Amino acid sequence: MTMPNPPTRSHEKLLFLGSGAVLLGALIIGLAREQHWGQRFLNLRLVAANASGIKPGQAVQISGMQVGQVRSLEMLPNAKVQVKFQIDERFAPLVGPRSTASQGQQGLVGEHFLVVSPDPQPWPVSLEKHGMRDTTLPYEQPPAISSLMVDLHQTQKALQATLNNTTKLTAEDVPDTLREIRNTLGSVDKLSGVLQRETAATAPTLRKTLTQISATGASAEATSNRAQQVLEQTQPILVNTLKELQQLSSISRKLLQLLVGIGGLEEAPKDR
Fold first, then answer.
1. How far is CA 187 from CA 58, 110, 195, in A?
2. What are the residue boundaries of the structural domains of the chain, listed by start?
């Protein structure tokens, strides 16, 4: 009975080389995916006052979705930083002349990312004809954390001073105010008692006076009614009396004139 021949060294070498080739291929494929080999991008730029929060490989988002990444940072002669980034060809039509760049962050201590505001253009737009190729987008510089902390500290100090003043004012004024309120309530209570006693004492006299006033009013009304009736009854008599007096006055005046004329006639013959 013959035994099988053991594997040769050449077979082991081929197996080792094959495994290495597979691992190398997987590594190359992973690196190609990471570096987006074979994909086309819309290249854009921005200029920032400083590179705080920006680094190569950082994600670029539009509407909360990752659409590209930061490629490189370059110091300019004026000490500003030029940031080059790219947008995947599929999302290139979402960038337009009104697009701006800013910086975002996941939560308070999360990773920073670059945000591009959308300005959709008509689809499809090829990269060769895209009007935003190699364009510098306006960049909204985020506020410095140090200045925010200083402002927060100043606000906290002002708030604490306000609280201290309020506490001091409350401690000084509130007891005096409560004391004055209690004194006022006591005075009101005393005045209420005095009014109640005076009302009880003067109530009978007041009721009697009101009764007399009511009776006097009724009597005056009755007298007025009687006077009106008498006036209505005597008005025709008064009118007739006035007419008779007028006629009597006219007759007396004529009689007087007649007597005066007679006296003149008697004096005339004597003069002759």
1. 77, 67, 12
2. 37-142, 143-233
Rounded Cα distance between 216 and 209, Å, is: 10
**Is the bond preceding residue 56 a cis peptide, omega within 30 degrees?**
no
12-16, 78-82, 105-109, 200-204 — most confident range: 78-82
Nearest to 80 by CA among 116, 51, 44, 113: 51
The helix (run of H) or strand (run of E) holding residue 41 is strand 41-48
Q: Residue 115: what residue type?
A: V
Structure tokens at 42: 């819309």
Tokens of 241: 């009396």
C-alpha dihedral sign at 212, 215, 221, 224:
negative
Q: Identify whether the C-beta of residue 49 lies closer than 8 Å to the C-beta of residue 141.
A: yes
5-57, pLDDT tens digit by residue? 555 667 777 777 777 777 777 777 666 565 555 578 899 999 999 988 899 99
Residue pair 137/99 in contact by the 8 Å Cβ criterion? yes
